[in-house]
Amino acid sequence: MYLSHFKAAGFRNLAPLELDFDPKVNLFLGENAQGKTNLLEAIYFLALTRSHRTSNDKELIGFGADFASLEGRVHKSQVELDLRLVISKKGKLAWVNRIEQGRLSKYVGHLNAILFSPEDLDLVKGAPGIRRRFMDLEFGQVSPEYLYYAGKYRQVLQQRNNYLKQLAKGGAKDQVLLDVLSDQLAQAASEVIARRYKYLADLSRYAAKAYQAISLGREDLRVIYRPSVKEISEADAPRQIQEKISQRLAQVRADELRRATTQLGPHRDDIEFQLGGKNAHLYASQGQQRTIALSLKLAEISLIKQLTNESPILLLDDVMSELDHLRQGALLTFIQGQTQTFITTTDLAGISREIADQPKIYYIQSGQIKEKEEG
C-alpha cells in the first residue's frame, strides 16, 4: 500500500498543496514550526479521520478558512482508490472513489497509517489515557467492528455521565433510565474489551519479537491488558464480560451517584508493559522505554499486514534524531522495501545514511512545500 498523490487545502498553516510521493521514502526538511508536523497530521487524518494531536476537528481548519479538504490516491495490491475528506465546523464528510460514505466507519481502513512521534516515547511512562488512545486509533483502523463499538461506547458513556450528573443535582429522580444506560454501557464495553484482548495478544507477540531483535535478546517484553473490572479475564466471552461489568456497576452505583461519573469501563482501562516480569513503567530505563515504544510501532506494522495483507504507510515525525543508531537500524530493517515512509526532520545529521539514501526530498517553510530539484 502506498499514497501516490496528495492534495490539501485549508488545513492548519499549510498553503494549498498538491504533491506526488515516492512509493518508498519521502523526506521533509524544515525548521521547527514551519508545518512539517501539520503535513503528517493531514496524511494521518486522511487515513483515520482523526488527529493524533487534538480531538477538536475545528482546530484543523486554517485561519480564515471555512473548511479543510484532503484528497489522496491510494495504491493497493489489487486496487487503486481516490479518497477525499472535508472538515467543516458542522462535521466531516468522506468519499471513496467519489462515492460519499454514509458512516465514517465505512471509510476508515482504506488507507492504513502508523505514526511515530516523540510523544509516542511516552507510551510507557505516560498517563493511561495515552495508551487507551493508542488502542482506539490503531485497532479502529483495522477493525470496523472495533470502531463501531468504541464509538457506541463513547456515546452511551456520555449519556450515562450526563444522567448521573442530573441525578446528583436532583434534576432527575428515575433510576430506571440509569439501569437501561448501564445495560447498554456494559454491552458495548464487552465488545470493546473482547477485541482489545484479541488485538493486544497479536500485538504483544510481534512486539516481543521486535524487542528481542533490538535488545539482542537481553529481555522479554510482554504487553498486558489491565481492565478496570479486575474480574474480567482474557478467556471470557463477550457475554461473560458484560455480566461482570453489570455486576460491578451495581456494586459501585452509590459511589457513582455521589461522584456523578462512571467509575469503570474501557475508558478507565490500561496497558501494562513488562520486561523480565517487571513493570516497565516503574523499573525500565529511558533507553528500555524507548525500545518498547519502537517495538510497539514495528509490531503495529506487522499486525496491520497480518489483518489486511497490506503494509501500512509509516509517518515518522521528527523522531529519527531521538533514536540511536541501533534503534534506527532496527526500524530500517522493517521498512526497507515494504513500507512507504514519510520522515520529517530539521536536518539530515541525525538520520542513518541507509534510510536517506534515495529519498524524495521536500523543503517546508511557513507552510509552503517545495520539492528538491534534481542535482
How is this structure best described in words?
With 375 residues, the chain is α/β, with parallel strands linked by helices. The protein is 41% helix and 22% strand. It is built from 10 helices and 15 strands. The chain has helices at residues 36-48, 104-107, 128-140, 144-169, 176-214, 238-251, 253-259, 280-283, 286-308, 325-335, and strands at 2-9, 17-20, 25-29, 67-75, 80-88, 91-96, 99-100, 113-116, 221-226, 270-275, 278-279, 313-317, 341-345, 360-365, 368-371. The strands form 3 sheets. The chain has a 6-stranded antiparallel β-sheet with strand order 2-1-4-5-6-7, with helices on one face. The chain has a 6-stranded mixed β-sheet with strand order 8-12-13-3-14-15, sandwiched between helices. The chain has a 3-stranded antiparallel β-sheet with strand order 9-10-11. The radius of gyration is 22 Å and the shape is globular.
Helix and strand sequence: EEEHEEEEHEHHHEHHEEHHEHEEE
Taken from the alpha-carbon principal axes, the silhouette is: globular
Helix content: 40-55%
* Main sheet summary: 6 strands, antiparallel
Q: Which residue ranges are poorly predicted, with pLDDT under 50 across at least 5 consecutive positions?
A: none
Question: What does the oligomeric state look like here?
Answer: single chain
Overall mean pLDDT stands at: 90
Number of strands: 15
**DSSP strand content:** 15-25%
End-to-end C-alpha gap: 29 Å
Question: What structural class results from the helix and strand content?
Answer: alpha/beta
Radius of gyration: 22 Å
Number of helices: 10
In spatial order, strands of the major sheet run: 2-1-4-5-6-7
